Amino acid sequence: MPVEEVCDGVSAEDDAKTGSDVPFLLEDRVKEKVPWKEVLRRKVGKKCSCSSARVKALLVDSIPIIKWLPRYQFKDWIIGDAMSGLIIGILLVPQSIAYSLLAEQDPIYGLYTSFFASIIYALLGTSRHISVGMFGVLCLLVGQVVDRELTLAGYSSDTNQTIMGIVDNSTGPICDRSCYAIMVGATLTFTAGVYQVLMGLLQVGFVSVFLSDSLLSGFATGASLTILTSQIKYFLGLHLPRVQGWGSLIKTWVSLLKNLGHTNVCDLITSMICLLVLVPTKELNDRFKAKLKAPIPFELFVVIAATLASHFGKFKETYGSDVAGNIPTGFMPPQLPNWSLIPNIAVDAFSIAIVGFAITVSLSEMFAKKHGYMVDPNQEMYAIGFCNIIPSFFRCFTTSAALTKTLVKESTGCQTQVSGLVTALVLLLVLLVIAPLFYSLQKCVLAVIIVVNLRGALRKFGDIPQMWRVNRVDTIIWLVTMSASALVNTELGLLVGVLVSAFFVLGRTQSAQVLQLGQAGDRELFEDIGSYKGLQTQPGVAVFRYEAPIYYANQTLFKKSLYRSVGLDPLKEKARRRKLEKQKNQKQGVEDQKQEMDVSTNVYLLEHTSLHTLVIDCSPVLFLDTAGVNALKEVCKDYKELGVNVLLAQCNTSVIDSLRRGGYYDPKNATKEIKFHTVGDAISYAQSLKTQNGDCDTVV
């Protein structure tokens, strides 16, 4: 982005006449400037217009099933959808009961949650393949909040007791521990859903791109360690309160080790047997999934066998084993959230909303890309938000997409969300008829199911060496996020991961260096001299590239790197001259002083007589802020004083606009804007100026 300063009577026209190499110019397209009021009026008019076509389009966009269901290819798709829906429904029965344990809820509420989520997402979601229901990390976050609020309300930490807490709840009479637990869970879910819908209204679905795969993977793995630790007490049949606060994982292990002497042998043996059955069979399912039409539901078989053994062996009465207890049939009447709890759980709900949305959008986009269709992130925000808001009135807790069940759903022939409706029918059958039969199911069996489903996240530890070889920055983000989630606090781990990711992005702009470029033969190709051999430099012209934006955080580093690469720091040169001037005043003899000053101030010029122009390739500079423009102005001014011209080449339109607005081109000083679209143009122009008669101080 050069500007020629005309000096000593030599004008731009004179340059052209005397043979100056005029760079190739592109004519700017004049853009019509629309007043902001007019822009606002158009947008409001577009959003608020009311017509039959507008209402129809809004309805179709808000409820996508209206669009795709009439086009449903019944003969081709129904078998795959029915099969996948049936398989997912069977898998969800034991998992819904198990994850209720993780969320500190009764089993029936897990079944409610999976049932309503399957229906609502089928109506509102844009992904054809993801399975929405309970996700282990979210259940853990919900369980932590529920346990904290139960403790604050005065309820016992022993889940076998149903003593009344001292709580004034506005939705009805004082209730027992189970009643208050689902009240907290439902209020938390409602608040998280409101956050998600508001984010959809504000069109902030793009925020998911700021949560990288390494961040989400590290967070899920760290949370998986916490989940694993929280389930060990059920393996051992111990009655221990859930540890709250920072360092809960370490504190829990300390508590477990102290209470090993109280282990329930019956629960321990049952846990070991279930592990020995489920781990190998799950591995077999994974190994032969390409040959199996559908995964074998070993979890359901284990649940049935364990329930029968517990019932006929009277494990609860004889050995004191914890069991699922009474699971009612049918549905309870809806209830409003407890509004007085919202201030207590508002911050927790926000982190849950972000995690739930990020998981759902990342999975939906992954499978959409795989199968060649598009999903709308903002509509996904609405869908998952209403999957939380509406079920919260029916005593449900937070949901999101779940990777394991989504993979099963895809592999069993799923084509559309009709499979979600089939899953809801299976769960409805369980809720109306089968649920009470799980009364004698031991909680340790549910804990085993939870732990076995953590295998995928825990396997990530074995991938660390490969991750390190591929990308060390992503590996560090993964390790830091995982460690913070597991060892410090689950919610804090997500925030730490975001901050570390932002730090590395900022650090990359801070660590960018100025590279000296050379030309590859006669081609218009300029690359780093330090990276490639055989590159040629031009006499009297040095070409440099800065591979980062120039803004307030790195403008000082840019100048230092540039001065170091050129081999001349103008600021140090000025300081040296000021020092010589000071010494001049202290010496005697006017003629001797003058002679010494002339020799000293020309040391640099004698050593660098060939360098007359510095070209900066700005193609990697995506943007400039005010500090960046000022930095370039300082560079030009400093080198001008030393007789070195500075040219900017290959600036994008954003950078050009920033230079114009920032006063880089100053008409008061008779400067003229000249654009160099290639580095070669800038070099040719610089060399032609050197051959001109007359003395031009600088070309910028």
TrEMBL record:
GO molecular function: secondary active sulfate transmembrane transporter activity
Organism name: Anabarilius grahami (Kanglang fish)
Alphabetized UniProt keyword annotations: Membrane, Transmembrane, Transmembrane helix
Protein name, entry field: Sulfate transporter
Membrane-traversing stretches: 77-102, 179-198, 204-228, 296-313, 341-361, 382-404, 424-454, 475-506
NCBIfam families xrefs: sulP
Pfam families named in the record: STAS (PF01740), Sulfate_transp (PF00916)
Keyword S-adenosyl-L-methionine among record annotations: no
PROSITE patterns named among the record's database cross-references: SLC26A, STAS
PANTHER family referenced in this protein's UniProt entry, alphabetically: SULFATE TRANSPORTER
